């Protein structure tokens, strides 16, 4: 009967060797497959068992010439998935500065978009700094020296070019050159019988019929008309009669928002006066 089981000496000797060779081949192919498809990155140190079976460790081509970096220290290691505690609040000074309005449609021309109309008995200050000089009422004229001249407003000293603000929202009822000494002048109707005027201005930024916001830049301080120096002559007219501006409490005005470009016009008579300049 023939031997179909292969039990001869040569077969017995070659059987275990052939099996071991096949095992080594399968291990090597598996290792190459892992690195070729990126399923797992190469270990920093080869496994002893892997070295014994598969030979030298296989390193990705991009890392072949580079030394393995040391493990980062706890102080420099980048933590993973760490979020700040929501209770850890850091306080800091914050000033909001804008060159355009919140809607982005126009440049700002107000001290702050957050300003609201003042309550009854209050007005926003027409200047950021109020330095009272010549008061409302009887005085000696600084121009003529006449005793007993009636002064129709309150004067505030300020450098020429200082911004002048609308003390409340309203409608501009008149702008132009005031022929009775006011120089460049603006009048604003605030409703409820109140009109305010701003005089001796260097330049004017509004036109008759304009609606103005509280705290809007309307002009710059000047010394036009009957004036002995840079200052703002401010008047309040209530129900057709001049009254003391200091009957109102002035709330501080401070320029917070960054202003856009504001064009100023002077209506002073002369060759540079705009055509059709309004007068009283």
Protein architecture, described:
With 280 residues, this protein is α+β, with helices and mostly antiparallel strands. Among the domains are: 9-63, no CATH class; 122-251, Glucose Permease (Domain IIA) (Distorted Sandwich), CATH 2.70.70. Helices cover 13% and strands 24% of the residues. It has two helices and 13 strands, in the order H-H-E-E-E-E-E-E-E-E-E-E-E-E-E. The strands form three sheets. Strands 4, 5, 6, 7, 8, 9, 10, 11 and 12 form a nine-stranded antiparallel beta sheet that branches. It has a two-stranded parallel sheet with strand order 1-13. The chain has a two-stranded antiparallel sheet with strand order 2-3. A hairpin with a 2-residue loop joins strand 11 (231-238) and strand 12. The chain is globular, with a radius of gyration of 44 Å. The termini are far apart.
Task: Describe the structure in brief.
This protein is α+β, with helices and mostly antiparallel strands and 280 residues long. It is 13% helix and 24% strand. The strands form 3 sheets. Strands 4, 5, 6, 7, 8, 9, 10, 11 and 12 form a 9-stranded antiparallel β-sheet that branches. A two-stranded parallel ribbon has the order 1-13. The protein has a two-stranded antiparallel ribbon with strand order 2-3.
CATH architecture of one domain: Distorted Sandwich
Using only C-alpha atoms, the radius of gyration works out to 44 Å
CATH superfamily of one domain: Glucose Permease (Domain IIA)
Instruction: Output the structural class.
Output: alpha+beta
Distance between the amino and carboxyl termini: 141 Å
Number of strands: 13
Q: How many DSSP H or I helices?
A: 2
Provide the low-confidence segments as ranges: 1-13, 17-21, 26-70, 72-106
Q: Give the helices and strands as they follow along the chain.
A: HHEEEEEEEEEEEEE
Shape call: globular
Mean pLDDT: 74
For the largest beta-sheet, the strand count, sense and barrel status come to: 9 strands, antiparallel
CATH class category of one domain: Mainly Beta
Question: Any idea of the CATH topology of one domain?
Answer: Glucose Permease (Domain IIA)
Tell me the helix content. Answer: 10-25%
